[in-house]
Amino acid sequence: MATPSEVVLEVRDLVKHFPLTQGILYKRQIGAIKAVDGISFDLHRGETLGIVGESGCGKSTLAKLLMALERPTSGKVLVGGKDIAAARGSELKHMRRNIQMVMQDPYTSLNPRMTVGDIVGEPYEIHSEVVPKGDRRKRVQELLEVVGLNPDHINRYPHQFSGGQRQRIGIARGLALQPEIIICDEPVSALDVSIQAQVMNLLDGLQKEFNLAYIFIAHDLSVVRHISDRVGVMYLGKMVELGKDTEIYDRPSHPYTQALLSAVPVPDPDGREQRERIILQGDPPSPANPPSGCRFRTRCWKAQDICAEQEPLLEIRDKAGDHPSACHFAEAADVVHVN
Amino acid sequence: MSEPTATQDLIQGTPEPSAAAVPNSSGKPRSLWYDTWDILKRRKIFWISFVMLIVFLVMAAFPTLFTHKDPEWATLARSMEGPSEDAWFGFDLQGRDVFARTIYGARTSIIVGVLATLGTVVLGGIAGVIAAYQGKWLDSLLSRVGEMFLGVPYVLGAVIILGSVAPVQSNPGKTMIMTVVIIVLAVLGWPVLMRIARSSIIQAKHQDYVQAARALGAGPFRIIFKHLLPNSLAPILVYSTITIGSYIGAEATLSLLGIGLRTPVISWGIAIADHTRYIRTGAHAMFFPAAFLSLCVLTFVMLGEAVRDALDPKLR
Amino acid sequence: MIEVLPESAGSGTHGGALLEVDDLHVEFRTRAGVAKAVNGVTYSVSAGETLAVLGESGSGKSVTAQTIMGILDMPPGKITGGEIRFRGTDLLKLPEDERRKVRGEGISMIFQDALSALNPVFPVGWQIAEMFRIHRGASRADAKKKAIELMDRVRIPAAKERVSDYPHQFSGGMRQRIMIAMAIALDPEVLIADEPTTALDVTVQAQIMELLAELQRDSNMGLILITHDLGVVADVADKIAVMYGGRIVENAPVHDLYRNPAHPYTKGLLESIPRVDLKGQELYAIKGMPPNLLDMPSGCAFHPRCPYRQETCTTDVPPLHTISGTRGSACHFWREVLDGDAQ
Fold first, then answer.
1. C-alpha dihedral over C193, C239, C187, C70, to 10 degrees?
2. Whole-angstrom Cα distance, residue B232 to residue B198?
3. Above 0.85 for ipTM, yes or no?
4. What part of B 107-126 touches C (C-beta under 8 Å)?
5. Is residue A206 part of a domain?
6. Which of A200, A226, A277 is opposite residue C206, by nearest beta carbon?
7. φ and ψ at C2, to 5 degrees?
8. pLDDT digits (tens, 9 = 90+) for A193-202
9. Which residues of C touch A219 (CB under 8 A)?
10. Where exactly are the structural domains of chain C?
11. Which CATH number fits domain C17-106+227-339: 3.40.50.2300, 3.40.50.920, 3.40.50.300, 3.40.50.1370?
């Protein structure tokens, strides 16, 4: 359903360095955490771009940058052609109507002192021009119904709902302003297995109904595969591979993607003895002091001298199929299916 | 002690703990304040302090309900006379009825305690909100200024300010003395409240729902008044309740040192101060106001503790 | 090694099983009522075997483990029935000092959150060495040497240099290794791992699971793996006990369970998870929510969410029907579930 439609979000060379400072009144910079370090991609109307990576890879910072909750050090985030990262005041506020988010933790993302009606209706209080005052309650109830909640529960408080239901409340809030883009930051990872499927099906259904574009950030590769049309893999602030879901999952070409995929446990005991794992050694280096050249080289089994000297760019490479990969020695391989 | 949510939470350690433990279909809407009240009303300590508080408040508002004697009326002939059927608490140095003066003293002590606390909350609260919300250099500046105030020993600070504003030789009126004492207590006390307000607002500021509100385009006023303050009031409330008690004690300390309230004001602190020298000959003149003072301080402290326990989410 | 225990003091029916949990009942007394967290759980593990206990939050899987270890908070917890036999001896009847010896030497446990399970103010080496000082009366120098050996064994690089580091100086994966080192320090016969990799990244999870498997091979430990992750279970388990609402609803050898589940809950779970090797369309979603332990549904706890539900499910609690020698399902309609035709 994805390809040739209109681009709703363009990210260009996005960089976010968090300064490390010292000092009491006057803060002196002694270094920087390179959380996001030069990321570019497009998002089309109605498609889902999955972003996977492990903790510390910068995917949550990326979400905050896209939402303009953090200002980037450099780079652009173009929403409908305008740079949200440079927008201020009423212009920024207006742009926010088009890009909303669903957060990870359903227990902390809802204000415990507000009723469900106040939470889902807050977007209309802030953007009072969207829905006239008298119609708001009705709109909120409609939204609750859309996400599968009982509209009569409008006066309840978040703590009276289960995790899955709270996540639905968060989704209703994200939908209220009828955005084109929704950033989902680990929207199901805090939920029980049997509830995850409900929420993912809901997100799927809403996407079709409202033609939404999702950025779906998660650490769970199975979840990302299920929902995404395209997938980007992040490592230490860089995008190391980007492609259609089949390209990434069936023909990954970056060693990190391959290791990541092979590490995912498959819920099928048959043939587990034959399954080969690429077990990475050690932990990811600190983003405050990333390795030179390719950032993955310290844990990579293919690393050579060139990897330390020259940073591999995210580009289409001979042996890597027709999707870009940031590895000097990229070579497509099927690591998930052994047979 | 613990509600099922907390227990299950601890036991499971897996995501979505309360889904299984907490019924979501239960009847009427309940706010967190309602829950707090629900816990509070089961606490014995809360009811004891509550009843005592009512007694003290009625005493302060309508002293004539408790005594018909005039606290100012002095019969020098009965100076330091012990308790009797006629005067339950006896007479003080100037032959005034100790019971009447103790009852009337409640008003001053409670007014000073409550208003000084109010001042502290307003000063410290505003400073805390600004420091926490704005952050950066303003936060550093306010925090350092607060630490300077905290660094001054309480009594020394009070001696200096009171000594220069309302020297002992001058003869200010009742309201003037009380106002000055209230201001001194608030000025010296605000940094603690600022710290509490600041830290609880910083904590609330990093909550996801504040991020969500920002993502929706909410301005600073909405974020502060709708999201931050309602979620950081609890510790401020608890501290204030306890502070009322300690300010009543502090007022007495200042009076004892001769720099706080003084005649013609009637207060427990003054009564204690006036009779310390006669502790061997007529302890009653000091004992009764001191006992009332201790009870009143205890009341507010107990109330504060009860509220804190009820608001503490870990105990739920 | 367990010379403190009278050999086969119990019934002697433990035929091969090292640890047997038999009809265990645990309750929590709370302000809002009595929560029946564990309702007649029975499972066992033998040497060298891996039992996976699968369940969602509130299923009672962790409470059972804590009861085995004797670390359940009582109150509010209360054991209201059943036995936990280790080599035939009922642990619940042992006095605390003998129980303590079993803990660590006989059975030990690792937790999900390694950071909070380690004491932040002591070096990790000291904490590992403490096991030897307390249980074995080893000297300081000896204990430290053993601690370094153990850190090597759980593959902590440069163990010698890192033995005096504090927990916060290690990454999440390394901390989990340190906790594993402490757990295996006294060569336990049974290791209980409660969600050992839930807090970890997937590449680190793979490292830890590989380490556990290797340690188990080397020392022939019985391993009880408590988890909600169907993927991890499929990778390592020999047999599985699925828990729901404080009961075991299905137990089976791993291949049978994945190939042909005999309980609607297991079946629903398997169909509801997205898989990295398959691109599905709509996921099957088990409707509704896990049961409230304070207010359990009548009859079968799963009946409000069950596609196979019949009248009898709302009134009769299904016993754990034996399907074959090693398989059981607590569903009145397990035959239909196996055949796959929902009503």
1. 50
2. 9
3. no
4. none
5. no
6. A277
7. -100, 40
8. 878 888 888 9
9. 201-202
10. 17-106+227-339
11. 3.40.50.300
